[in-house]
Model the fold of this input.
Amino acid sequence: MQIAIDLPNDFVNFQSVAGIEKNMRLSYSLWLFKNAKMTITKAAELANLDIYHFIAACKQNQVPVIDISKQELLDELAGM
Done:
């Protein structure tokens, strides 16, 4: 599927079309992952990144990779 977006020329001049596509793919995949719409593996694939680089992008963009509270983790460890 292809999606077209009209952007004003003065916004496009900041980077190449390929750079815009890369940033939009990353932003959208981070949003999907953050909102639990997609697994981390699929989000990394959508962003054209390996899992390790996607995790790094999550950290850079303050998107939690592990969605568990401290108390849930402690309860889990106590049950082992």
User: Anything to note?
Assistant: Residues 20 and 34 are 21 Å apart (CA to CA). The chain has a mean pLDDT of 91. The helical segments are 9-12, 17-34, 40-46, 51-60, 70-78. DSSP finds five helices and no strands in the chain.
